[in-house]
Amino acid sequence: MKKDPAIVKLFAVPTDRWPGDALALGVYENGKPQKALARLGEGWAEEVDRVLTAGWLRGKEGESLLLSMAGGASDPRVLLLVGLGKADAITPLTLENVGARLVKAAATHGMAKLGCLISMDRHNGISPGRCVEHLAEGAWGGSYRFDRFKTKGNDSENGHQKTITLELAVKEKKMERMVQKLERLHHVCNGRFLAQNLGNLPGNLLTPEMLAAEARKMAEDLPIQVTVWNEKELKKNRMNGILAVGQGSSNPPRLIVMEYRQGGEGPLLAVVGKAVTFDSGGISLKPGAKMEEMKFDMAGGAAVFGFMHAIASMKLKVNCIGLVPAAENLPSGHAQRPGDVIETASGQWVEVINTDAEGRLILADALHHARSLAPDMIIDLATLTGACVIALGHEASAVMGFNKKMLRKLGRAGKRVGEKLWPLPLFPGYQELLKSTVADMKNVGGRDAGAITGGCFLSRFIDKKTPWAHIDIAGTAWDLSGKKPSQPKGATGVGVRLLCRFAEKELL
Ligand code: BES
Ligand code: MN
Ligand code: ZN
To answer: Which is catalytic among the residues 101, 254, 274, 360?
Structure first.
C-alpha cells in the first residue's frame, strides 16, 4: 500500500507556539467564529470580527477564507477561516468533510503544514476528542487515491502530490490519550484503504484466486491464519452454492477463511463477506447500463479483509474469524441455468430461479461453514440486492436479524462511526415468498420486499440460537458522485469502521 498523502499529527495548546504555515479556525453559519479565536495572538479577534462583519465569509459549509496579518507579533501569521455550517447541525460527517477540505486547502495554497483549532471546542455535542477523530478520518479519507492505472504525470490530480501535514489542536492534559486514539484510528483507516483498494480493482485484476493471494499475503505480516479452499476442497465440503455461482467462469471460486484469535477465552465473532469479483448476472444477464459497477460486488468481502487487517494491526484482544466466499458470476456453456436445483452445504436444496441472485448462494455455504465453527455471533455484509438501494438509497445500509440486542449493538457502533444502519423486518410472512414447488426454497422471492427476502433466504443457513445480523451494503459500498470531500469516487470501504467499533466495544 502507498504512503498516505496526508499526515495527521496533534499539537498541544495553549502552551506551544505553533510553527506551521497557517492555523485553521471555524466559523458558524450565523457568522460567529468558534470560541477558540480567543486563544489566538494579538489583533486576530478584531481582524476576524472586521472580516465577518463585512460579510466576506458567512460560515456556510464549504466556504473558506485565507487571512494574513503582515508584520507585528501576531501568532499565527496566517489564518484559514473555515465554514462549519449551522452550529446545531454539525455532525461527524460535517467534521470529516472539514478535515478533508483542510488537506485540500493546504495543497491549493502550497502549504506543507496546516494547524487546526476546530478541535478545541465542543461542536453540537461532539467533544473535542471526538472532533479530533472525525477531522483526522476526513483528512485521511479525503486524501485516499486509487491511481494505480494512471500513468505518472498524465493526470493533473495525481501528478505531483506532495505530503501535507495536518496538526490538530488538543489540550495538553489529553495529549497522551489522544495520541493513542489517533494511532488506533490510523489502523482502522488503513484497513479501510485496503478494502477500498480491493473494491476498486476491476474483475480482470481481482479474480477469486487473486483475492485469496491477498489473504495469504496479509497472513505473512500479521498474526492471522489463512485457509483457502479451492474447487477440490469446495467439492469435498459440498459447497455447491459457491461452486454453482463460479462454474460459468474460467476463474474458479474460492472460500477464504481468516482467523485471528488473540482474545483468550472471550467470545468468537464470525464475519462473512460476499465477494463476487464480477457480477454479470450470469445466464440471467444484467442489462448493460452500469454493469461495470458490478466490479464492486465484492465489497462485503473487502470489508472483511480490511477489518481483519485493522484488528490484527492494532493487536485487539478479540477472537474473530473472517469468511469470504469468492466467485465470478459469468454466463457460458458451463454456467448454471435458471431452473437448476442445487444442494447447499447445509443439505438444503435450492431452486435457482434467477442466476443473478447469486450472492445468497455463496453466502449460504459460507454462513453454514461459519456455523460449524461455533461462533458466539455472526455478521454478514453483502452488496446483496438492488432493492436495498431502492429502499434506502445511498445514505444507509440495511440491517436485518432476529436478535434485538445484536441489532442495538450494531446500531450503536454504526452511529458512532458515521456508518448508518437502518433495520428491515424479517417477519415470518416474508419467508412464504421463497416457497418452491420442487426444492426447499427458491433463490428469489419476486419483486416485492427484495432486500427482505434476501435476508430471509440467508436466515435459513444460520442456527437460530446464535445472534446474527445481515447487512445489505448495496447502496453504500461505492460512491461515484464525488459529492463528499472525504470520499473520493469509488469504493467506500463501508463496514470496516463499523466492524472495528463493534469488535472493540460491543463484543462482550
Ligand atoms: N449484486 C447484485 C445487487 C446489486 C445491484 C447491488 C445493484 C448494488 C447495485 C445482486 O447480485 C443482484 O443482482 N441481485 C438481484 C436479486 C434479484 C434477482 C432477486 C437484484 O437486486 O436485482
Ligand atoms: Mn447478481
Ligand atoms: Zn451480486
So the answer is: 360
